[in-house]
Design a protein that fits this description.
about 180 residues; mainly alpha; two-stranded antiparallel ribbon; about 55% helix
């Protein structure tokens, strides 16, 4: 092997390992996100009987510009397409949202929050805000919030998951 070629391993070319500061930052970020996600999930289930994904499906159109397409929701929710459709089905069955064809795009489905869905969002929101403030916002000082928002915006600046092509299943061999 020459110096101009990177070493290769069983998984292909090797990558530069994380230094201790990079690894530590990764661990701290993942732990903080896991803790926040766990506490938010517990609060939403205890207060409203809904999951965080269901809360996102309700809160985004309820507190945004009105009805959103499933694709717009998928772009903001880190969840599989099929899982998102399933969760929307549960919310629709509970009378918390409606799903209708978009008048502007035959391929799109619009999600609209019902009055019952808005009432549920308003019921869980105070506890949600309390958890987010206690675990995320209150520990910050000065310009931390602005800097964190800038950094996370750069980290998230990838194409949305809904834009990722679906993997095709290999054809089943005939017997």
């Amino acid at each position: 092997m020459t110096d101009s070629q990177p070493p290769t391993g069983a998984g292909g070319p090797s990558v530069r390992p994380l230094d201790p500061a990079e690894l530590g930052t990764c661990f701290v970020l993942m732990e903080a996100v896991s803790l926040l996600q766990h506490q938010v999930e517990q609060q939403l289930r205890a207060t409203g009987g809904i999951s965080y994904v269901q809360f996102q499906l309700l809160a985004r159109p309820a507190h945004g510009d009105g009805p959103l397409t499933m694709t717009e929701l998928a772009d903001g929710v880190v969840y599989s397409r099929s899982g998102l459709t399933y969760q929307a089905g549960l919310l629709e069955k509970a009378g918390l949202i409606t799903r209708d064809p978009s008048p502007d795009d035959d391929r799109a489905t619009l999600v609209t929050v019902t009055d019952d869905g808005r009432a549920l969002v308003e019921a869980v929101l105070p506890g949600h805000v309390e958890v987010v403030r206690r675990l995320l916002l209150d520990p910050m000082a000065g310009d931390d919030l602005h800097r964190l928002g800038d950094v996370m915006t750069r980290v998230r600046a990838q194409p949305p998951r809904s834009a990722t092509p679906r993997r095709r299943r290999p054809p089943v061999a005939e017997q």
